[in-house]
Write a structure and sequence with these properties.
By secondary structure, the chain is of the alpha/beta class. Helix content is 38%, strand content 13%.
Length: 427
C-alpha cells in the first residue's frame, strides 16, 4: 500500500501537529492542512504554534520539513490522509460535527483510488459510516473498494513525558478488514506503541468514548464525595490515599475545581446524544457531567464562605486566580474550569488578578509575586509547580486572608496554626 510515503494531515492542532512531526521524523513527507492562517504561517516559518510533546519532535518544524497550507489540493498526491479536526460541543452541550463534515467534503474533492483516509477526531460510534463515508463517496469512489477508510481515535496527553504520541498504544478499525489492516500497517510503521485492530469502525469509535467517560464518571464520584465530606469534616484526600492501599479493585481519582481538556468534558456528550437518537438514555453519564460541571460553582461557594469568615464580601475584594491551563505545567487552556470560576467571580463584582506562567498573554498580573501583593484571597485553579511551592509564610507575608486550593496541591496541615484560612476541595 505504501508507495510514496506522503501523508496529508488535516488539522494541525494539539493532535495533528505532533502526529505530523512524528511522521516527518519517521521519513514521511508531510503535507499539513489547516484553516488557521496564523498556524500555517507559523509552521512555514519554522516556529511551532503550540507546544509539541515531547520537545524534540518540534525539530521537524524548525527544519521546515512540514509543509502547511490552507488549500486541500496537495492531498491528491498523498498515500495517507488523516483527519484530526476538533469535535467540540455547543454551549448547550450538543455535539458539533461541522469541522469533521467540512474536512471530509474538502478531502472528497481530491480523493483518488488507493488512498487511505483515517479519521482521528473523537466521535460517537457511527460517525465514520453514517457521516464521513457518504461525504467521501461523493467523489464517485467507494469506501472499502476504491479507497481505504479507517478510524484511529487519537490518544495524546499534553505534558505527559512518559506516554507520548510515539509510544501510546492505539486501536484502529476499518470499513472492512483490508482497510483496518492497511491502517494498522501505517501506524505500526510510525509508532513504537502496540496497535490493536478492532473488529469494526464502530468499535474503534466507541473505545475513545468509553475511555474518557470512564474517567469522567470516576471524577464525578470523588467530586460528589468532596462536597459531602466538606460538610462532614472529612479529608477526602486522606480517605482516597487510604483506599489506595488496597492492591486490587480500586483506582484512585482525585477531586478538583472542575474538569478540563478537550476530551473528558466533551466526549461523553457524543455518546449521550447518539444513544438518545437510538432510543436509549444515558442517565449515569449525564449525571456525571452535571456533577463535574458544578465544581466551579462549588469552588466559588468555598471562596464566599472563606471571605465571610473574615467579614468580607466577594464584591470589591481582590482575588488572585492562579492558573488558566486545564492541567499543570502546560499552556493548554481548552475547557479549563478556571474560566468558569473567573466568570462567576466577575458576576459578583470581585476584583481579579490573574496569572499563569504558561499563559501570560491572558494574564493581567505580571508574576506570582504581583498576585500575592495585590490579593486578599487566592484561588489555585491549576497545580503548576510554581504554585505548589507556595508556603504559609509566603501568604502571611502578603497578608493573604484565605486560599481556596482548587487542586488540593498545598500542604493542608501547614495551615493548622496560621491565620490564613485554607479551603480545599473536600478537605
Amino acid at each position: 500500500m505504501i508507495e510514496n510515503k506522503t501523508v496529508a494531515i488535516v488539522g494541525l492542532g494539539y493532535v495533528g501537529l505532533p502526529l505530523a512531526c512524528l511522521c516527518s521524523r519517521k521519513g514521511w513527507q508531510v503535507e499539513g492542512i489547516d484553516i488557521n492562517k496564523e498556524t500555517i504561517a507559523s509552521i512555514n516559518k519554522g516556529v511551532a504554534p503550540i507546544a509539541i510533546e515531547p520537545g524534540h519532535l518540534g525539530e521537524e518544524i524548525k527544519k521546515k520539513k512540514i509543509k502547511a497550507a490552507e488549500d486541500f489540493k496537495n492531498i491528491a498526491d498523498a498515500q495517507v490522509i488523516i483527519i484530526c479536526v476538533p469535535t467540540p460541543v455547543s454551549d448547550s452541550y450538543l455535539p458539533n460535527l461541522g469541522p469533521v463534515k467540512s474536512a471530509s467534503q474538502s478531502v472528497a474533492k481530491y480523493l483518488k483510488k488507493g488512498q487511505l483516509v483515517v479519521l482521528e477526531s473523537t466521535v460517537n460510534p457511527g460517525v465514520s459510516i453514517e457521516v464521513v463515508k457518504p461525504i467521501l463517496e461523493e467523489s464517485g469512489l467507494k469506501a472499502g473498494k476504491d479507497f481505504h477508510l479507517a478510524h484511529c481515535p487519537e490518544r495524546i496527553d499534553p505534558g505527559n513525558e512518559k506516554w507520548t504520541v510515539i509510544n501510546i498504544p492505539r486501536v484502529v478499525g476499518g470499513i472492512n478488514k483490508t482497510s483496518a489492516k492497511v491502517a494498522k500497517d501505517f501506524y505500526e510503521e510510525i509508532l513504537e506503541g502496540k496497535v490493536m485492530m478492532m473488529k469494526s469502525l464502530k468499535e474503534a469509535e466507541a473505545v475513545k468514548i468509553v475511555e474518557n467517560s470512564f474517567r469522567d464518571i470516576n471524577i464525578a464520584f470523588v467530586n460528589e464525595l468532596a462536597q459531602s465530606f466538606n460538610k462532614m469534616d472529612i479529608d477526602i484526600v486522606d480517605v482516597i490515599n487510604g483506599a489506595s492501599t488496597k492492591p486490587f479493585s480500586f483506582l484512585a481519582h482525585y477531586p478538583s475545581c472542575g474538569v478540563g481538556g478537550h476530551c473528558i468534558p466533551v466526549d461523553p456528550y457524543y455518546l449521550i446524544e447518539r444513544a438518545k437518537a437510538s432510543g436509549f438514555t444515558h442517565e449515569f453519564l449525564r449525571l456525571a457531567r452535571e456533577i463535574n460541571n458544578y465544581m466551579p460553582t462549588f469552588t466559588v461557594d468555598l471562596i464566599t464562605q472563606a471571605l465571610n469568615d473574615h467579614q468580607k464580601s466577594i464584591k470589591g475584594t481582590n482575588i488572585g486566580i492562579l492558573g488558566l491551563a486545564y492541567k499543570k505545567n502546560i499552556s493548554d487552556t481548552r475547557e479549563s474550569p478556571a474560566y468558569e470560576i473567573i466568570d462567576l467571580l466577575k458576576k459578583v463584582g470581585a476584583e481579579l488578578h490573574i496569572y499563569d506562567p504558561y499563559v501570560k498573554d491572558e494574564s493581567n498580573a505580571s508574576s506570582l509575586a504581583d498576585v500575592l501583593k495585590k490579593s486578599d484571597c487566592l484561588v489555585i485553579a491549576t497545580d503548576h509547580d510554581e504554585f505548589k511551592g507556595l508556603s504559609v509564610a509566603d501568604l502571611e507575608k502578603n497578608n493573604i486572608l484565605a486560599v481556596v486550593d482548587g487542586k488540593n496541591c498545598l500542604d493542608k496541615d501547614s495551615f493548622a496554626k496560621s491565620k490564613v484560612d485554607y479551603q480545599g476541595i473536600g478537605r
